[in-house]
């Protein structure tokens, strides 16, 4: 079955809080299902294959690109690929659910354009670049080298906020989560 459904896209520079907000929504809104991306990076902490990501080799990723299995993909960091598999979206729609994405800014804009009229694209905005840097450093998941790469990318990505349907400020986490929940529920009832 390939019934078309709705998509909710959460994008932001790394460290803005999109994973935290998306996980909150998944716990609150049962009609949502997370689009598990494929990546060539190694699992972090207790991340699980098939739940957080499909962790695959670069060779397999390139093979899947050649087979046109991705709706979008990107070399988000040098040498590290991330992508959304077409089968993932189809699987979730076949269950009658709405797909929710945690995806980088360029990938989010690709999906918004591709699924125009079916998608709600939300940009999660941190209070400032300085706070973003603090959060990313505080998360403690990246090496100093990786952090530097993420900061440089984040600075550029903040400029894309106006291209999204909604800018969701993430200053106080509880407020941001409630606002996100309200936006998602509205969209699921009334559409874009
Ligand atoms: P992203 O998925 O955008 O990279 P995360 O959800 O991993 O970001 O959040 C980055 C870090 O910031 C995490 O340690 C998270 O707990 C923390 N965080 C998220 N939102 C807030 C907030 N509003 N205030 C303080 N810390 C936050
Ligand atoms: P992380 O390594 O922190 O899990 O993710 C790095 C960045 O890649 C984040 O901004 C994340 O949202 C993004 N990302 C995750 N999955 C995808 C995907 O399928 N496509 C694209 N373009 N970016 C993704």
Note the topology.
Elements: E1 7-11, H1 18-28, E2 32-34, E3 37-39, E4 53-55, H2 58-66, E5 70-77, E6 80-85, H3 86-94, E7 98-103, H4 105-114, E8 119-125, H5 129-139, H6 144-157, E9 166-169, H7 173-190
Parallel strand pairs: 1-7, 1-8, 2-7, 3-4, 8-9
Antiparallel strand pairs: 3-6, 5-6
Helix pairs in contact: 1-7, 5-6
Describe the structure.
The strands form two sheets. Strands 2-7-1-8-9 form a five-stranded parallel β-sheet, with helices on both faces. Strands 4-3-6-5 form a four-stranded mixed β-sheet, sandwiched between helices. The chain contains seven helices and nine strands. It is an alpha/beta fold and 192 residues long. The chain is globular. The chain has helices at 18-28, 58-66, 86-94, 105-114, 129-139, 144-157, 173-190, and strands spanning 7-11, 32-34, 37-39, 53-55, 70-77, 80-85, 98-103, 119-125, 166-169. The protein has one domain: Rossmann fold, CATH 3.40.50. Adenosine-5'-diphosphate binds at residues 12, 14-20, 135, 138-139, 170, 172-173, 176. Guanosine-5'-monophosphate binds at residues 14, 37, 41, 72, 74, 76, 82-84, 102-104, 107.
């Amino acid at each position: 079955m390939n019934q078309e459904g709705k998509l909710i896209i959460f994008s932001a520079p790394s460290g803005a809080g999109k994973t935290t907000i998306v996980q909150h929504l998944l716990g609150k809104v049962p009609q949502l299902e997370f689009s598990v991306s494929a990546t060539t990076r190694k699992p972090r902490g207790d991340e699980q294959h098939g739940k957080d990501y499909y962790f695959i080799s670069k060779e397999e990723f390139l093979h899947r690109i050649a087979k046109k299995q991705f709706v979008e993909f990107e070399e988000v960091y040098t040498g590290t690929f991330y992508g959304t598999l077409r089968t993932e979206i189809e699987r979730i729609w076949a269950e009658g659910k709405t797909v929710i994405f945690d995806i980088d800014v360029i990938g989010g804009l690709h999906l918004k354009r591709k699924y125009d009229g079916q998608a709600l694209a939300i940009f999660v905005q941190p209070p400032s670049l300085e706070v973003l840097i603090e959060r990313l450093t505080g998360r403690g998941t990246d090496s100093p080298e990786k952090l530097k790469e993420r900061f440089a990318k984040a600075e550029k990505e903040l400029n894309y906020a106006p291209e999204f349907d909604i800018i969701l400020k993430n200053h106080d986490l509880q407020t941001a989560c409630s606002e996100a929940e309200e936006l998602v529920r509205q969209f699921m009832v009334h559409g874009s």
